[in-house]
């Protein structure tokens, strides 16, 4: 009986954010001749799409940072206009230069249960010119409910994206089945939060299937 309760709870939790039917889009066209070195510097999230409709953060930025053991991505944000939080994940760089835009990111959470300490996600560059705009997306699939979750970043080197760059940035979205009219414009107000977290927290931009533990 207890096992059934945990199973039911897990399914309900996964249903909450895995909302799109079936598996993730396949054979998605990514940015050609992508160079990670040109992606360094601060990017502002000016529009985003979350397939579960979650919109709790604003003043979001993305920035690559170099550490002795590799390259990391720092996702900084202000939650509810009150809390400044950040999430740091290690970038997995493809060995094949032809797939340079098909990146991965790994988040490690020391205080999480064993099965959730390390989480791997795709981080795919759909389009960018490195100077003005970038379109990034991730997709996670849950076999538990046969549904997937998509998050899209429309990034800009400035808090405001010009119209020409916006059109170029949203052009690839049809290929992953996203209506550009559903993009949410990010708020760049209330960017001086009252509280700052000193340790990384889980990002809103990635989702994972809730594991179902066997309970006797």
What does the model show?
With 216 residues, the chain is mainly β. The chain has one domain (2-196): Calycin beta-barrel core domain (Lipocalin). It contains two helices and eleven strands; from the N terminus they run αβββββββββαββ. It has helices at 2-17, 163-170; strands at residues 20-21, 42-50, 57-67, 70-79, 83-92, 102-108, 118-128, 133-142, 147-156, 184-185, 195-196. Residues 1-15 and 209-216 have low confidence and may be disordered.
Topology diagram in text:
Elements: H1 2-17, E1 20-21, E2 42-50, E3 57-67, E4 70-79, E5 83-92, E6 102-108, E7 118-128, E8 133-142, E9 147-156, H2 163-170, E10 184-185, E11 195-196
Parallel strand pairs: 5-11
Antiparallel strand pairs: 1-9, 2-3, 2-9, 2-10, 3-4, 4-5, 5-6, 6-7, 7-8, 8-9
Task: Provide a short characterization of the protein structure.
The chain is mainly beta and 216 residues long. The protein is built from 2 helices and 11 strands, in the order αβββββββββαββ. It has helices spanning 2-17, 163-170, and strands at 20-21, 42-50, 57-67, 70-79, 83-92, 102-108, 118-128, 133-142, 147-156, 184-185, 195-196.
The residue ranges in which pLDDT falls below 50 over 5 or more consecutive positions are: 1-15, 209-216
- Strands of the largest sheet, in order across it? 2-3-4-5-6-7-8-9
| CATH level-3 fold name | Lipocalin
Helix coverage percent of residues? 10-25%
Query: What's the quaternary structure here?
Result: single chain
Coarse structural class: mainly beta
CATH class descriptor = Mainly Beta
- Provide mean pLDDT, rounded: 83
């Amino acid at each position: 009986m207890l096992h059934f309760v945990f199973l039911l709870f897990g399914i309900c939790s996964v249903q909450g954010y895995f909302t799109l039917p079936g598996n993730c889009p396949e054979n998605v066209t990514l940015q050609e001749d992508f160079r990670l070195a040109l992606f360094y510097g601060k990017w502002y999230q000016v529009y985003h799409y979350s397939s579960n409709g979650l919109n709790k953060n604003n003043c979001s930025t993305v920035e690559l940072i170099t550490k002795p053991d590799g390259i990391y991505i720092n996702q900084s944000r202000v939650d509810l206009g009150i809390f400044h939080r950040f999430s740091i994940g290690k970038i997995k760089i493809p060995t094949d230069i032809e797939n340079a835009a098909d990146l991965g990111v790994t988040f490690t959470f020391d205080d999480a249960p064993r099965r959730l300490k390390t989480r791997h996600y795709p981080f795919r560059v759909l389009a960018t010119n490195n100077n003005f705009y970038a379109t990034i997306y991730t997709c996670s699939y849950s076999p538990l409910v046969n549904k997937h979750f998509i998050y899209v970043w429309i990034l800009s080197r400035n808090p405001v994206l010009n119209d020409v760059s916006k059109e170029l940035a949203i052009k690839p979205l049809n290929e992953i089945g996203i209506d550009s009219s559903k993009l949410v414009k990010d708020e760049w107000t209330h960017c001086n939060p009252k509280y700052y977290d000193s340790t990384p927290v889980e990002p809103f931009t990635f989702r994972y299937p809730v594991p179902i533990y066997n309970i006797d």
